[in-house]
Amino acid sequence: MTGDNRLAQLDVLVMAAGTGSRMGMAERKQWLTLCGSPLFIYTLKKLIAFGADSLYVVVYPDDVARVEEALRTAGLAHVHVVPGGETRQDSVRFGLTKTSREFVAVHDGARPFLEKADFLRVVDLAMECGAATIGAPVRDTLKRVGADRRIEANVEREGLFAVYTPQVFRRDWLVEAHQQALADGFVGTDDTVLLERMGRAVQIATGSAWNIKITQQEDLKWIRVWEMGNCESD
Question: Is 148 helix (H, G, I), strand (E, B) or coil?
């Protein structure tokens, strides 16, 4: 198990700067409530309960004052607030400028169902090899579909993983990867892509498929399911 000495080497960036456009809501998704707290607050509290003690929440720039007030109300005034950028990649890069520890974890504020064992597992793996992410093996049958919605091919699922967060890296590797991506005008789908294009190997730790990201309206049902069984204990 990861000890306190390990987590003392770790800064955590919690990404909550998205507009939530896919939710089709006037309010950004990080302000959805889970167990009576805004989604990002619930996620932060979980990470703190896991032992993380250096946290930065990267938020939509217009939300800074509101987030700071929400943190004070929740007793989390020690969490640092960083204004985000136009893209998630920009936001991670801005967050990195505030960090200083040897390792950095990047986690989605809209992934509130992260389990402690998964968090510690991916941190341990990253501290062994330099870069790691959490994920789960793909369980469903996969098809490649054309523009006309016709199935074109079956995709072999063996060896395929759905990739989640947190993703944990040596800070110097991640800073270098972001700087190179900025210089090249490259935008990746996540931070592992930026490391991979630099020739850095990224390992994957197997985690729970329950570690979903609240992205679309249909995901709201998972919040309600979670509340039924977890709010009192949390």
Answer: coil
